[in-house]
Design brief:
By secondary structure, the protein is an alpha/beta fold. 17% of the residues lie in helices and 33% in strands. The strands form two sheets. A ten-stranded mixed sheet has the order 4-3-2-1-5-6-7-14-9-12. A four-stranded antiparallel sheet has the order 8-13-10-11, with no helix packed on it. 32% of the residues are buried. The mean pLDDT is 92.
């Protein structure tokens, strides 16, 4: 099962996220992520959070009570973390996160920290970027000339190799604090193979260059 989380903050337009969503996927709106989901034309299967930031509260009156889980403002999890935990309990095998860009830096870093955990989103879309979590071998097409950056994720030292990048990743070992900023895709497709650990690949959505 694929789980989709719409969360607050700046998020992608529908044309960027719709390719990730298929019939039967489970959609969760985390607090003001409800507004983002509705603006993209999606009615969530579940809405969670303290609802302090939701603008379109009339939607909440029109759905069954068991499709809304309201939490107190004073809690130990963010609304995004609650949504992610629910998908973990549902045994989702793929998670797409939409939103979370811009706004407060602590909220942004809170989402980034989620990628160091054992259960994390596979792909994260902000308003301008796509962030992909990579383990094993991945091939990417249609990105010739694009700028990409890579950051290690998780607790394990990251070792990797690549093809099709201007500065290849062979024999590199990255720990927390290391990164590869502004690499260039010079072959289509290009590949990244992770030998240990994980990396986050950041690219720009096409309207914004890269």
């Amino acid at each position: 099962m694929t789980g989709i989380i719409f969360t607050g903050g700046e998020g992608p337009e529908k044309r960027f996220i719709e390719k990730e969503i298929s019939p039967g996927d489970f959609i969760i709106a985390a607090d003001s992520g409800l507004d983002r989901a509705l603006s993209c034309g999606y009615s969530p299967d579940l809405v969670v959070g303290d609802m302090d930031s939701v603008k379109n509260k009339t939607f909440l009156d029109d759905i069954p009570d068991d499709c809304v889980k309201i939490f107190p403002e004073d809690k130990d999890e963010t609304d995004t973390e609650i949504a992610l935990r629910i998908l973990k309990e549902m045994k989702a095998d793929r998670v797409i996160l939409a939103g979370g860009g811009g706004g407060r830096m602590d909220h942004l870093l809170g989402i980034v920290s989620i990628f160091d955990r054992s259960f994390y989103p596979d792909v994260w879309y902000t308003a301008k970027e796509r962030i992909v979590s990579i383990s094993g071998r991945r091939e990417f097409g249609g990105m010739l000339g694009d700028t990409v950056s890579l950051f290690p994720a998780g607790v394990e030292i990251c070792r990797m190799k690549s093809t099709g990048l201007k500065w290849n990743l062979d024999k590199l070992q990255w720990e927390k604090g290391d990164a590869g900023i502004s690499n260039i895709v010079v072959e289509d497709p290009f590949t990244i193979t992770i030998l240990s650990g994980r990396v986050l690949l950041i690219s720009f959505l096409k309207e914004f260059g890269g």
